[in-house]
Each structure stands twice: as C-alpha cells, then as structure tokens.
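Final report, closing paragraph on structural work. Over the funding period we assembled a curated collection of sequence-structure pairs, and we close with a single example.
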Amino acid sequence: MFLFEKIGKYFLSFLEELGSIFLLLWKSFLWFFTPPYKLKRIFEQMEFVGVKSSTLILLTGLFTGMVLALQTHNGVAKFGAEGFVGAIVGLSMSRELGPVLTALMVTARVVSSMAAELGTMRVTEQIDALYTLATDPIKYLIVPRITAGLLMVPLLTIFCNAAGYLGGYFVGVKLLGINETVFIRNTLDLVELSDLFNGITKAVVFGLVITLIGCYKGFYTKGGAAGVGRATTQAVVLASITVIIFDYFLTALMF
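Its predicted structure, as stored:
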C-alpha cells in the first residue's frame, strides 16, 4: 500500500503542476490580446532571445552540418552514393536537427536565465510589488517572454539550418571532393519546402513550450535562494526533455 500511495502522490503532483502550466498559458493568451501592449518589453525580450543567441546558434548549426556531412560520407561512400550527402544534410537539418538543436541551445542559454530572473523577483517580493502598482505580472513579465520565444526560435532555426547547409557544403565539396553540381542538385531535388515548413512549425511549438516552462518555474519559485537554484535546474531539465518528447510526436504527425 505504501508503494501505491507514493505513486499516487507523484501522479497527483504531476497533474497539479500540469494544470498550473496550462492555466498560466491560458492567462498569458488572454493578456496577449488585452491592451495596452507592452511593445518595448517584447522587443527587449526578442533581442535577448534572438539577437544575443544568434552566434551560439550559428556555430551550433555550422559544426553540426560539418560533422553530419563527414559521418554521412563515410557511410554512403561504401555504396557509391557520395552525391547524396548534401540531400541527407539538408533533410536532417530541416526536419530534425535544426529545430531540436536550436530549442536545446535556447533552453540552455535563455530558459535558465528566465527562470532565475523570475525566481529572484519572486523570492525578493518584486512580483508582489507589481500587484500593489495595479500591474498584472503575467502581462508585464511573462507575455513578452513567451511572445519572444514564439517569434525568435523559428527565426533562429532558419539561421541554424542555413549554417548547417553551409557547413555540409564546405566539408562535402571543398574537403571531400564531391562534385559541386551533383551536391547542390540532389539537395534541391530532395529537400522540399514542406520539410522546411514542418521544421519551422516544430520550432514554433518548441519556442512556446520552453519559454512557458521557464516562466512557470521561475514565477512560482519557493524557498529563497536555494529555491531559485532548484527552479532554474528544473526548468532546463524539464524543457529539454519536453523538446525531445514533443519532437517525436510532431515527427509522427508531420512525416
């Protein structure tokens, strides 16, 4: 009985937290369409999420494409299919690696910062002070962050894909000696617009999910400074796992 009681408590705790996350999402959705609009706050978060993450994303995409081309060439060379290296790199980056790696890098850099910042504001009672100033903290703090995630993660994914294509081209054509015309032609023939759009759709979902989790963990932090540390760690771990899980189901639906 003790075992079942333990399992039941964990299950109820999970449902309670899941319900709180959806409730926060619903409140954010309602505030998003309620004026006045905090455009300055949104642009500040877009800069933080997008512009300041661009170098990290470009490096990630570039070297991922280079490694993918190198490993793919080692495999397909046994069958004389070196010309398809570009198509394999393009499909892999567009469908999976671009959106997933972008979401994971943004989680490591941005979501952790969101959770820590909001958690610090919670334990120092800055969020409570917003209520006394007749300002809803969800509209002021969370809506701009979620909006920035929805807009900038897809854009960063496009940059990651482009960097991956260039990295694959450089390794495949310049280092491994694959015919340039064949490399490009096969890539254009096999990588369709639907692959790109589906990858960007994944990035939109990932951007919403990871920023929502980061804001939720930070907004409801408890336990002082130690609680901020726990909330930050939980936000990064939960957001990363959620990206991987959502990627499977989105892939099963799209492809």
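The chain has one domain: 38-254. The mean pLDDT is 89. We thank the funder for supporting this effort.
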